[in-house]
């Protein structure tokens, strides 16, 4: 039997498994996603007494994602509950990500987002900034994984399940893209809805997507280039920090919802 915990970060939910307990990750992680109906399985390997941990995300379709903002928040909370530490560096496919834990609130250093075609990646040599694609004005960015952001009058008035797949699978994105809708609110924040690659559907929150919305909004002159902005997916509020050195942070609540065990067979 293998033990697991289920956490969510603003409604983005994950099974969390000790990497040492699961020699095979892809089939095991995919099956766990499907049986628990969660957005991903995180395999975590604590190292250096809890100073560091490796993080591998297996998604419901069997794919692996280099980075996951809400997954990183849940992972840091899981490590903290085992080590008693209030900080951990997660080794992700997108590089090391320092996380700090204060009670149930976790902040992740999300690094520097990139618009360059090789970084997103794009199958062309020019960045994709506020340009029409499949009927929407979109901007493409990598915040650890590829994202598309489009600003609309009302995120809830759009049929995300219908509009997102042609963009998510468009040939201009050789590795695909997560698709984010954003609506500016009068309080300076943004409403968010995200269709996620790997889940192949809408999730209740996406951390790398929230960072993408804030950074794209700043780059288009919609909000100041530095400071904090609240981005609100259906699952709650996320605080995005935009720094002068162009690095970003993601902060929000986490919650452990259940603990269980599953047969390895
Ligand atoms: N939910 C995540 C993003 C997970 C990765 C994404 N589905 C992909 O395949 O790129 C987040 O909180 O950032």
Automatic annotation (TrEMBL):
Pfam families attached here? DAP_epimerase
UniProt name for this protein: Diaminopimelate epimerase
Q: Where in the cell is it found?
A: Cytoplasm
Taxonomy of the source species: Archaea, Methanobacteriati, Methanobacteriota, Stenosarchaea group, Halobacteria
**What is the originating organism of this protein?**
Halarchaeum salinum
Query: The organism sits in which domain of life?
Result: Archaea
Family annotation (PANTHER family): DIAMINOPIMELATE EPIMERASE, DIAMINOPIMELATE EPIMERASE, CHLOROPLASTIC
List, alphabetically, the HAMAP family matched.
DAP_epimerase
Q: Which UniProt keywords apply?
A: Amino-acid biosynthesis, Cytoplasm, Isomerase, Lysine biosynthesis
Binding-site residues, substrate: 12, 59, 69-70, 178, 196-197, 207-208
